[in-house]
Structure formats: C-alpha cells, structure tokens
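testing teh design pipeline on a random one, pls ignore if ur not involved
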C-alpha cells in the first residue's frame, strides 16, 4: 500500500493526469502482484470515466434513480439475498448477454442503473448494456459505497424480502 501511495503522491507532485497513470511502468513480482498495478488500473478506470466509456451514478442520486430508472443488480443470487434495493432486478453479470430481452422488458424505455458489490461487475455490465443501446450507468463503488453512504439507514432502505424479480 505504501508503494502505491508514494506513486500517487509523486504523480500529483509531477502534475500528471489520469491518462499518465495508465502507462507508468511499475515494478512487480509475479509472486506478489500483477503486471498491471492498481495505479495503472485506477488510471484506466479514470480515463474511461473522463472519455464517457464508463458512465457512473452515485449514492446521493438514489432517490431519483429508484424513481425514474430500472435498477439492475448484477451480483450473484446469494449476494442479492443479503440485501438489495426494493424493486431491483437481479440478473447476475455472467448471464446478462443472454437475458437482454428481460432487461428491455423490465426497463420499459427507462434508463438502466447497474450495481454490484464494488463496481467492477457493474462496469462490465454497463458496457454490455451500452453496446446493446441502453441508457446505462454503473454505481460508483457498488453496494459497498452505497451501504457506507446510507450508514444506519441501510437497514431501512435495503431489503432481504422476496425473491429477485428475475432470477
């Protein structure tokens, strides 16, 4: 962790932009890391947001989103059962391509706002949906961020009741 903080501090001091993080050639050892460091990956995600490849929505938009969009929860059925937004449709991200007709039917022309546990799977699902012509966006930080933003209200807002709308 300290290595990444040092790299990011140096990048800030050097007035680097998000795209510069992508091409940093950082050392690694296959036993302890991967070829693309978390700093490189942060740069890739940041650039995708800046260029519109990845559209995001945020917890402070929850009321507006639930009132005007289809919320698509792409976590596994087990994860969904631990707490989800009422009215959300659950289609695990691995099944999404084969179930786009269900999304079309459930959305009824509304935008689709996707969420998962941390944002990775919903970003993938967003790309699938955007390529299929949906007005889509991914919850920044996923359910982890949503629960943190809701704080004590999470138990009031999220439900474990009922079955997924589409399982």
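output:
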């Amino acid at each position: 962790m300290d290595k990444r903080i040092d790299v990011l501090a140096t990048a800030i001091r050097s007035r680097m932009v998000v795209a510069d993080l992508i091409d940093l050639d950082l050392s690694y050892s296959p036993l302890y890391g991967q070829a693309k460091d978390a700093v490189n990956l942060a740069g890739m995600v940041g650039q995708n947001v800046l260029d519109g490849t990845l559209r995001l929505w945020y917890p402070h938009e929850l009321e507006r989103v639930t009132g005007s969009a289809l919320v698509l929860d792409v976590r596994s059925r087990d994860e969904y059962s631990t707490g989800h937004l009422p009215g959300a449709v659950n289609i695990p991200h691995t099944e999404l391509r084969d179930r786009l007709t269900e999304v079309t039917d459930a959305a009824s022309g509304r935008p689709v706002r996707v969420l998962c546990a941390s944002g990775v799977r919903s970003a993938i699902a967003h790309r699938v949906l955007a390529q299929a012509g949906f007005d889509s966006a991914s919850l920044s930080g996923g359910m982890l961020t949503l629960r943190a933003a809701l704080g004590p209200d999470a138990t009031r807002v999220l439900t474990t009741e009922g079955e997924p709308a589409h399982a």
